[in-house]
Amino acid sequence: GCPGSPGNEHGPEAARAPGVFGHCSQGCAGWDCWGVCAGAAVGSMILGDPSSSGYSPKIDNSTQEPMNCTNHTAYVQCLPAPNITCRDHLGIEKVFTGHEVGFYKPIECRNVNGYSYKVAVALSLFLGWLGADRFYLGYPALGLLKFCTVGFCGIGSLIDFILISMQIVGPSDGSSYIIDYYGARLTRLSITNATFRKMQTYP
């Protein structure tokens, strides 16, 4: 193991492809590693594509999601840092130089189907009174209704513009908007068994 490395007991397991090494985690967690561990977990693994800035995942320009995103999951390269030696589940040892792919880590990605957020907002802003935004997003009935009523006398156009801008109304097929990977994406939070509100206490 890596004595002194934080979190050396366990590690989330990544999908294992032929010829790659066991687990993907911070530091040497889940590995039989030694070498330059430096007593710290952070920094002993590089996540992403070394040809891109900041070792971020490769992004598909057409979808603005990580490459090979299927079923809301994409696999990103993990590169062990230089002089890290690892033993895989077969007992084979390998010393990494920092340029070889050790394994692949699954990351979450969104399902997109060609609907651009910028186009939807622009249509809603300039042609919302004709129902162009609803036609574009796959709601022909509402689009026709807005067209016949001039956007519900402008009120419906304003409401739709707000809903689309806040990403509350999306494509009718349930897919996500195409938004720049590092753009302004919104995440809706809800109270479930995993998230709950805690009453604020005062001293």
From TrEMBL:
It is a multi-pass membrane protein. GO terms for cellular component: membrane. The keyword Magnesium does not apply. It is found in: Membrane. Residues 114-162 form the TM2 domain. Its main location: membrane. It comes from the Eukaryota. InterPro entries: TM2, TM2D1-3-like. It holds the Pfam family TM2. Belongs to the TM2 family. This is TM2 domain containing 1. It comes from Malurus cyaneus samueli.
